[in-house]
Every structure is written in structure tokens, then in C-alpha cells.
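Forgive a beginner's question, but would it be possible to get any protein sequence you like and the C-alpha cells describing how it folds?
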Amino acid sequence: MRSSVHRLTLTDPGDVSPLAEAIERGELNPATIVAVIGKTPGNGLVNDYTRGYLTQSLALLIGEHTAIHWRRIIERIPFIFSGGTEGVLTPHITVFCTEPDGNSDGRPTLAIATAFTPELAPQAIGRKAQAMDTAEAVRVAMGAAGIDDPADVHFVQVKGPCLTASQISAAAASGLDVAGGNADKSMALSRVASAFGVALALGEISEDQLDDSAFLKDFTLYSGVASCSSGVEVRCNEIVLLGNSRKWAGDYRISHRPMADALDISALYELLDDLQLEPIALSKSFAQNTTGTRSESPVMAAFVKCEADRRGLIRGQPHTMLNDGDMNQQRHIRGAVGAIAAAVLADTRIFVSGGAEHQGPDGGGIVTAIARKPEPDLQS
């Protein structure tokens, strides 16, 4: 199999012309698209409908070029979008394609696979049942990617459902016991269930440790590669699994690093070192030149999962993100960590997602990047 990655800037969830133009230029074949991950300019909270709007816009475009009904497109392609491009972050999408050809060069190369859980019942969302379904779907994706060793999995993006206030009320009226007493808590618990599902599938936790009582309580349990979101636009868990495999062909490879806290800039430098990239050279190669155009970056996509430390401290000093009545803490942390990542990676098109419960070290998170493979004589 051959993998390819295409990152496109989008400012309006209803305007998908950059992808249309890329298709028209022959840069990618819409029939080979297997997943799309991106950031929208919405608020990233329960009422962020830009995520569903962008999903529909892209599905209509792909359907137009493939003669497949847009609803069928949504059923087979995960469209995983996170709202919130605070600060310097830029709305964008990363389009993943695979083709059943290409000769492997024997080096670790980006491998891509997707999977879906069954539709989740309201009472399963945010609980062990959701985690178990997620774990099975992740195992299916690993098999589809041809990855046997969990250590070769570097990023598992999951989008799961959450319950709105009206759905929680309706469930209670029907005698259903659902997790979380409000929509925000439902979003958080759904992310936790997804993260624990990834951790279980990859052997980061055992099934004995997977219990509802650990959700949002035992933060020693987490996945080092899971990036989980939740929203009203999906009814099942959609999974995109990325790793490295010597069986695949393509120009890219992937790596990740844990972030100890929101200021852990060393994790970004270590990530670039894994990918054999020099931060200074990277910055210069992607700076504006005299014509106002930009050179192509060797970093093709970057993903950050982070959250405001629930203990209210960063390196011993207090932060106010959890006490702000005007702005959700996720919006604060995306802007702050997004600026740090953008400065190091010399690009503002970074997928920065808040809500990192049980995803990376508590109070920190995970950074991941996909970059061009170095020349063979530089490959370690």
C-alpha cells in the first residue's frame, strides 16, 4: 500500500474550494481519500456546528467527483474535526489517501487505517462499553494497517458522540441511566472512554484497570498516542490510526512525544529530532521569501493534544484558565500551546485539540508530526 498526505488551508467550513482545486490539478484522486482530520473556526464546544457543516461540505464535494452519495461517503470516511483556532492557529484539513500499489523501500513509512464502532446507545456513551467497542475497532484498524507491534502506532485519532442537554433529559424520562449530568461532562466522559479504548487495544492498560470508577479520577492511567474528541455530529466512534510500517510505500513517516505540561517545548524539539529535522533549518525553510510565497515544509501535518492542568498550577505557579467565567478553559489552552507549537514548527496549520483527559501525562498531553522521510543515507 502507498500512503499520501495533503494539508489544505480552509477558513470557511462551507468553502472547500482548496480541496476541489487540488483534485482538479490532479494532486490527489478523490477515490483514494480514506480520512480527513482538521480544525474549524468554531468554538469546539457542544454547540459547535461548524464540524458537521464541514463534514457535509467535504462529503458533497467528494461525492460529486466519485459518483457516490454524500451520505455513503460519510459512512466510509472518518471526517474528524476539532473546533477552535484561537490565537495564531489556522483552520485547515489534512487529507489522508491510500492506494493499493507502490513498492516499499524497506524503511519505516506512514501507514494509515480507519475503523468505526457500532452506533453507541446513550447509556453506553462515556462508559466502559464505549471503551470496549473502541478497543475492538482499534485492533481492526491495526490489522488493516498491517501493524503488529503497538510500538509502531504513533497516533490514534478518535471522534465519538456526546449527549446534549435535551438528549440527557429525554434519556432520564425514559428511565435510562446515562453518564454525566450535563452536555460538557458527557463530552469529557466520551473522550475518556475513547482514550481508555485505545489504551486497552495497545496494551497501555489492562482490562482489569478499565472501570467506570477510573474515569476522570485515576490519571495514572492514560494512552500515550490517543487524541480523542467528541461532538454532536457523530453517533459512533470514528477512528483514524497512523503508524509506521516497512510494508508500506510513500514519502512520509510519523513520530510522537509526550508533553509533561503546557510549557514542555522540549517535547517538540525531541519530536523533530526523531524525524531528523533541525528546528532552525525548519524555520528558515518555511519562512516567507522575497516574493511573499512560502517554501514547502518537510512537516506535512502536526497534532497536539493538551489541556489546562486541573490542579490549577503550571510548574508551581497558578493559572486562571479553570476559573474564567467568560472563556472555556479549552479555548485558553489551545491558544497558548498552539502558539508554542507554531513557533517551533514554523507553521500555524496545527491540529491543536483540548480536552486531554487520560491522553498523555496529566496536565500535559501529546505532540505528533508527520514529515518527509530523510534521504536513505541519512536514515538511522
In short: Residues 289-293 have pLDDT under 50 and may be disordered.
